[in-house]
Specification:
The complex is a heterodimer of chains A (about 400) and B (about 280).
Chain A (H helix, E strand, L loop, with lengths): L3 E9 L5 E10 L4 E5 L6 H9 L6 E6 L2 E2 L10 E4 L11 H11 L4 H14 L15 H13 L5 E5 L7 H18 L2 E6 L2 H7 L2 E6 L2 E6 L1 H6 L4 H6 L6 E8 L2 E4 L2 E4 L2 H9 L5 E6 L4 E3 L5 H6 L1 E12 L3 E7 L8 H10 L10 E7 L9 E6 L5 E3 L12
Parallel strand pairs in A: 3-8, 3-9, 6-7, 7-8
Antiparallel strand pairs in A: 1-2, 1-4, 4-5, 9-10, 11-12, 11-14, 12-13, 14-20, 15-19, 16-17, 16-19, 17-18
Helix pairs in contact in A: 2-3, 2-4
Chain B lengths: L1 H33 L19 H8 L1 H34 L5 H13 L3 H14 L5 H26 L3 H8 L4 H30 L2 H5 L9 H8 L9 H23 L14
Helix pairs in contact in B: 1-11, 2-11, 3-6, 3-8, 3-10, 4-6, 6-8, 7-8, 8-11, 10-11
The structure holds adenosine-5'-diphosphate and magnesium ion (MG).
Chain lengths: ~400, ~280
């Protein structure tokens, strides 16, 4: 059990690459914290610095209040689960899990007991005498977890531990990892590039981009109050819709038509000194099929009409995709987001809107639909630097 | 479908048999010659009509062959040991580290491997004579190491590149010192590569004739391949073919033993299962 503090931690690789820059994170004892961000944003580097596998160029790493920058990994009492699992192929499952205990000169009986315990928790009992080469991906993953938990370390570090599993197993293992962490109550730092994993697993999530921390907060806080376009676009699936807009006369002129500013939004935008040109962000679930709403609710929001391009019925909801006339939102931030998350759904004909409608909606592919949204739920961003203009203090 | 598959199987079996026969007939012929009596030596029979151990008895009663065998074993083992140890260190550095001059090192070792050995015989002969190395064990061990090293470095670095180095990190996280990580995780995984290389280098040294014949002059350092050629003129045997064959069979045995002994250690794909699926 341990509190881990990263104090202005910076990593510059010998080739000059600045991988992590000025990262400040305080990880509470027993907390499950997620580092998330697109590939190459410095997550693994950060984790390896906590582990002691990479030197810290600048700043301080403290575990339980003690500076550990100079300590070798073995003296930090931290266990790690690697993306590749890194099991010792010449040792059986039992020997793999016993390895850290044998290095610590634990007596044979205790080793046996702890390995059996871990095997029971991870459902590996009948595989103890097999070699890793003969195990399935999921079993290997569990052996890697087992090797980490047997010695009761101060903290667990996990670097994309589930990314080599197939989708179904990944969801399954996600739940077991969460349960295991809760059961053991050990401080855990978990790295992933998958925002769903980040949202579902962590007590708190750290969103990183290009070696910089963008935002730290609970999954809900990141979702409700993203501090910039990057976090807004990265968190949530399907991602937030972005539209260019001009702010004038107490209303927003958007490709969806004029949208009145609610009092709340107006106050926030004024406090943030919003420029004239802004980017509007709307989450897919804040839209609804106008037919399904009563008049008072309809009057409260904004309704526009558009043709359904694609309709995906999930049973519980319907995802309707619209193309709207007008400009696509442009911002350097959005460009990097698209490049880094690899979304290539750039259309020339205008911005695409994704909406999540009730299953009861009568939307049809190719047909026009009246779509309603709640203007109080929208986010405003500065196209210049991507910062939010609707941040609640 | 089934017939075309069994047809393919039959074709492969045929090809295998042809290759095996092609490779083994000369060997078996020598074995056969080594068991023939002097009278039946030239009878052109594949299977000896009269079996005899006399040829084997003969070579082991002369000092010449035993001394050559001792030279061969001693020189090949020492050269192999040194070449493998040096090669392991060099290959480890090439596979693991980025250091200035790495490409030059690789290039130079490639150059040595391509260098025609024949063209070095005369200069080596002169040099060893003036250095007093001519007709000594080191006189053969040194050039063997030189020419075995590129072979060792290439094979070993190919093996080393296969080792997932994340295992070393994992061992460190599990509480191992760098020495423990090497001894308990990396060394066991590198072993098959080291043994394979040792076999290749040993065979190279064991089989060499060119240096052995040019850089020796007496039985004090003459190895078996060179000594064999001296059986010919020896007055002790009227027709040396039988004894030469017996000697050839005898010197093949250590190689077969060597390979069989290490074969179990060269388990292909030992590292499978370390990473991913
Ligand atoms: N050993 C290294 N030497 C130089 N640059 C590196 C090294 N490892 C990673 N980097 C660079 O540091 C950045 C962050 O890498 P990494 O932490 O692995 O990202 P992530 O795990 O988020 O995908 C990348 O731009 C990568 O190219
Ligand atoms: Mg990574």
């Amino acid at each position: 059990m341990a509190e881990i503090v990263l104090d202005k931690v910076t990593k510059r690789y010998p080739d000059g690459a600045l991988a992590v820059s000025d990262v400040d994170i305080t990880i509470a004892d027993g907390e499950f914290i997620i580092l998330v961000g697109p590939s190459g944003c410095g997550k693994s580097t950060t984790l390896n610095m906590i582990a002691g596998l990479e030197d810290i160029t600048d700043g301080e790493l403290r575990i339980d209040g003690q500076r550990v920058n100079e300590r070798a990994p073995k003296d930090r009492d931290i266990a790690m689960v690697f993306q590749s699992y890194a099991l010792y192929p010449h040792m059986s499952v039992r020997e793999n899990m016993a390895f850290p205990l044998r290095l610590a000169h634990v007596d044979k009986e205790t080793i046996n007991r702890k390995v059996e315990d871990a095997a029971r928790i991870l459902d590996l009992g009948q595989h103890l005498d097999r070699k890793p080469g003969n195990l399935s991906g999921g079993q290997r993953q569990r052996v890697a977890m087992g090797r980490a938990i047997v010695r009761d370390p101060k903290a667990f570090l996990m670097d994309e531990p589930l990314s080599n599993l197939d989708a179904k197993l990944r969801v399954q293992m996600r739940t077991s990892v969460a349960k295991l962490q809760r059961r053991l109550g050990t401080t855990t730092v978990y790295v992933t590039h998958d925002q769903t994993e980040a949202m579902t697993l962590g007590d708190r999530v750290v969103v990183m981009r290009g070696g910089l921390v963008q935002q730290i907060g609970s999954p809900q806080a990141l979702y409700d109050q993203p501090v910039n376009l990057f976090v807004a676009g990265f968190i949530g699936s399907p991602s937030m819709n972005f539209l260019p807009a001009t702010l004038a006369d107490g209303q927003l002129n958007t490709p969806l038509g004029a949208v009145p500013l609610t009092d709340r939004i107006r106050r926030l935008a004024e406090a943030a000194k919003a420029p004239r040109e802004v980017i509007v962000g709307l989450r897919p679930e804040h839209f609804e099929d106008a037919e399904l709403l009563d008049d008072t609710e309809r009057a409260r929001g904004v309704t526009f009409t558009a043709t359904v391009e694609v309709l995906e019925s999930m049973g519980s909801d319907k995802f309707a995709y619209f193309l709207v006339e007008g400009e696509t939102a442009t911002s350097a931030e959005l460009d990097t987001l698209a490049a880094e998350t690899g979304s290539t759904e750039m259309t020339d004909s205008g911005p695409q809107i994704v909406t999540r409608l009730s299953a009861a909606s009568a939307a049809h592919e190719g047909a026009e639909l009246d779509v309603w949204f709640d203007p109080d739920k929208l986010h405003l961003f500065d196209p210049g630097d991507g910062r939010t203009l609707t941040h609640v203090k | 479908m089934a017939t075309s598959q069994s047809g393919a199987k039959a074709r492969w079996a045929l090809i295998d048999v042809v290759v095996l026969v092609y490779a083994l007939v000369p060997v078996l012929w020598i074995v056969s010659l080594s068991f023939k009596t002097k009278e039946t030596l030239a009878d052109k029979n594949f299977i000896p009509r009269e079996w005899t151990w006399q040829n084997y008895a003969d070579i082991f009663t002369t000092n010449q062959f035993l001394r050559a065998l001792l030279n061969s074993v001693g020189i090949a083992v020492i050269a192999t040991l040194i070449a493998v140890v040096l090669g392991t260190m060099a290959a480890y550095a090439i596979a693991r580290l980025d250091f200035p001059g790495k490409r030059v090192l690789v290039g130079v070792s490639l150059l040595i491997a391509m260098f025609p050995q024949v063209s070095l015989v005369t200069p080596l002969f002169e040099m060893e004579r003036s250095l007093g190395l001519f007709d000594t064990w080191p006189g053969l061990i040194l050039p063997y190491i030189t020419f075995a090293l590129p072979l060792a470095i290439y094979t070993l670095s190919a093996f080393f590149r296969e080792i997932p180095w994340e295992l070393e990190k994992a061992a460190k996280m599990d509480g191992a010192t760098p020495a423990q990580a090497f001894r308990r995780v990396i060394a066991p995984l590198a072993a098959p590569g080291v043994f394979t290389t040792a076999i290749l280098v040993f065979i190279f040294c064991w089989n060499d004739f060119l240096f052995a014949i040019s850089l020796t002059s007496t039985t004090s350092s003459r190895t078996v391949p060179a000594a064999l050629s001296f059986f010919q003129g020896s007055s002790q045997f009227e027709d040396p073919t039988g004894t030469v064959s017996a000697a050839a069979v005898v010197i093949t045995v250590p190689i077969i033993l060597f390979v069989l002994f290490f074969q179990r250690r060269i388990v292909a794909g030992l590292t499978s299962g370390a990473v991913k699926g």
